[in-house]
Amino acid sequence: MIRARPMMSSPTKKRGGTSAHPVRAAGRGGLRRLAGPVLAAGLAVGQLAAASSLDISDRYSPLNRKRPVRPETRYIILHTTEGSEAGSLRKVRKYGEAHYFITAAGKVYRIIDRRKIAAHAGRSMWGGRTNLDAMSIGIEVVGTYDRDINAAQYDALRELLRQLKGLYKIRDRDVLPHSMVAYGRPNRFHRANHRGRKRCGAIFARPDVRRRLGLAKRPPSDPDVLAGRLKVGDPDLQRMLFAATAPAPRQAILSGDSGPAAAGSAAPSSASGNGGGDSMVISRGRNAWSIAREAYDHPTTVYVFPDGTRTRGDEIADWDRIPAGTTVHLSEEEPEQEFEGFLEIGKDGDTIPDLAGDAAREATTIYFFPSGLIRTGAELAADASLRKMLAAPPKGTRLLVGYVYGGYVRARRSAYAIARSKWNYPSTFYRLPTGRILSGDEVDEASIPFRTLVFFQN
């Protein structure tokens, strides 16, 4: 067994578990360590804490202890839960999907230490940069993408943003809705990488909402669409994100409510951010992808046909023949975020170019064939006997694009020696000798079996 080098532990909890300061450092002397950055932002530590009106406390994810320290902080990403408060908080804590969670009553919970990586942005791109989890703070707000937040939430989010922007010197235009940075891979409904994977947080692109949050500027356009890196997959969403004016949002959630559905209710949530009701029903112009986005063919997504028949997403073969009136039910408990991780032939695209594009023959594209064979694109291209597998890969072949083939864990070669600080990133993958694949979140930091293969982002 190999002992992987542990990263920083979770912050030491103050007695009572509550503090007005969202960015306090861990352990004894934490405020002294923060004094430099805070003073650089023009605020003394004492002033920052005293000025805060935040009702903030710790609800740390069990994954917080394992998450690595984030190498840089360029952005703040704003999310809406698109589901009930109770279910969303449970899921966000379980999977470590945000740094902060703001309830309908304006309470703020710390989920992941602000210095560490939270799995909140998933497959994301902004200005050519990808995997924004490694360079951003994620804030989850109870609500839906098209519904205004309430006064208590405005107060809490505005103050939290003020403190975080000051600490990290983040510009207003770099506070972005999740829907503005999330993107999707090619699939049955879209032939190219596309913007529109999520509608989550779109309300925070509205100029009037941003003004109430103390945000003076927003991006005028999508830099990745303009540069040709992405196509527009959801024209309505694109107009919503960048229009000078927008239709008035739906009524705010009252502070006594628990979210789009009552706490503990079974009302479905939507990956597209549509809440429930008619928005979850397939109709003319509204297909499975429009409702469920990349969860459309997931085994936990259930389609209820007009005759009452229930079918899982992974059981449907002909997506063009789903009858109008079919209702889509999505699980609130499944992790929503996808890293720049595994892509599968027959699911995410039909050909290698669909999935890897110009990187198909690169050493940083790794192929996992159903037979168990694992090779890089460069190895396949160099071997005449294997080259045909690039032209006609078996269905079920999986790819990692933009990854390093780290090799095997051995007696004198630990996971840390291979991947360094990325050894426990959620986006790092381990293939155990049994063939099972785990993420950095799932690896036992005390024992990783010999002959485990390690793959980490380039």
Produce the secondary structure layout.
Layout: H1 30-40, H2 45-51, E1 55-58, E2 75-80, H3 85-95, E3 100-102, E4 107-110, E5 125-126, E6 129-130, E7 136-141, H4 151-168, E8 175-177, H5 178-181, E9 183-184, E10 194-195, H6 207-212, H7 223-226, E11 231-232, H8 235-242, H9 288-292, E12 302-304, E13 310-312, E14 327-329, E15 343-344, H10 352-356, E16 365-368, E17 374-376, H11 377-382, H12 384-391, E18 398-401, E19 403-408, H13 415-419, E20 429-431, E21 437-439, E22 453-457
Parallel strand pairs: 1-4, 2-7, 2-8, 3-7, 10-11
Antiparallel strand pairs: 3-4, 5-6, 9-10, 12-13, 12-14, 15-18, 16-17, 16-18, 19-22, 20-21, 20-22
Number of helices: 13
Query: What portion of the residues fall into strands of 2 or more residues?
Result: 15-25%
For the biggest β-sheet, the strand order reads: 1-4-3-7-2-8
Could you say how many structural domains there are in total?
Answer: 4
Oligomer: single chain
Mean pLDDT: 81
Described by the principal axes of the CA atoms, the overall outline is globular
CATH topology of the largest domain, what is it called? Lysozyme-like
Q: Report the strand count.
A: 22
CATH architectural name of the largest domain: 3-Layer(aba) Sandwich
State the CATH superfamily name of the largest domain.
Answer: Peptidoglycan recognition protein-like
Name of the level-1 CATH class of the largest domain: Alpha Beta
Please state the structural category: alpha+beta
Please report the distance between the alpha carbons of the first and last residues.
26 Å
Major sheet summary line: 6 strands, mixed
Instruction: Give the fraction of residues assigned to helices.
Output: 10-25%
Poorly predicted residue ranges: 1-20, 24-51, 258-276
Alpha-carbon Rg, integer: 22 Å
